[in-house]
Write a sequence for this structure.
């Protein structure tokens, strides 16, 4: 029996190395929407949002241009994802469309909408647009970037700068009042954690509690 067990274990190890675990990848043939903004001498200089059709997984990258690239995954609701691809369809998947206003206005950063599916890809670049569908899509993308940026700031301050948490919550409160954030409910776990943790100052705990209540009632 011991000999059989040793042989079985050896077989598992051999085949385990021969056939490594295959991690889930993007669905073959699935469409991908990409938003990118490059705005030198601003903060941040680089923003990129990627959303895959048919998946609640997305990724974002927010950084300065001289920093190392690296995307971070985040979740997106099916309703918002469907809205993104609905607007993309209205814009003919960016095939042969011209979104820029073509007027002499300030540089607001080069923005790119890109659609990919298999070997097919289309993209459009613009500085400023008055196209209704494009403006809605832009608002969603910039809002998602701001939302994930707030998540990053809150997480970092909760870990390294507890006194700075209240200032981050003030920024969140401002953006929430302006309706900037597409899915503020994504911040509820952090807000609940802050409001229940006595290591944070009372004013921050109270503000986190009030913001969480506001988000829940608005949802």
């Amino acid at each position: 029996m011991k000999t059989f067990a040793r042989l079985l274990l050896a077989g598992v190890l051999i085949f385990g190395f021969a056939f490594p675990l295959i991690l889930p990848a993007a669905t073959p043939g699935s469409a991908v929407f990409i938003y990118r903004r490059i705005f030198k001498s601003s903060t941040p200089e680089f923003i990129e949002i990627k959303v895959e059709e048919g998946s609640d997984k997305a990724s974002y990258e927010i950084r300065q241009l001289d920093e190392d690239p690296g995307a971070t995954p985040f979740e997106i609701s099916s309703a918002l994802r469907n809205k993104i691809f609905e607007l993309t369809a209205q814009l003919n998947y960016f095939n042969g469309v011209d979104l820029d206003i073509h007027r002499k206005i300030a540089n607001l950063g080069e923005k790119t909408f890109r659609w990919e599916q298999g070997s097919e890809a289309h993209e459009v670049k613009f500085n400023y647009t008055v196209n209704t569908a494009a403006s809605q899509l832009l608002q969603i993308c910039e809002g998602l970037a701001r939302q994930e940026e707030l998540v990053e700031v809150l997480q970092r301050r909760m870990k390294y700068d507890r006194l700075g948490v209240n200032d981050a919550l003030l920024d969140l409160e401002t953006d929430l009042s302006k309706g900037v954030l597409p899915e503020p409910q994504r911040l509820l776990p952090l807000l609940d954690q802050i409001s229940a943790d006595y290591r944070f100052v009372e004013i921050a705990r109270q503000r986190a509690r009030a913001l969480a209540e506001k988000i829940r009632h608005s949802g």
Summary: The longest strand covers residues 110-117. Residues 28-134 form one domain.
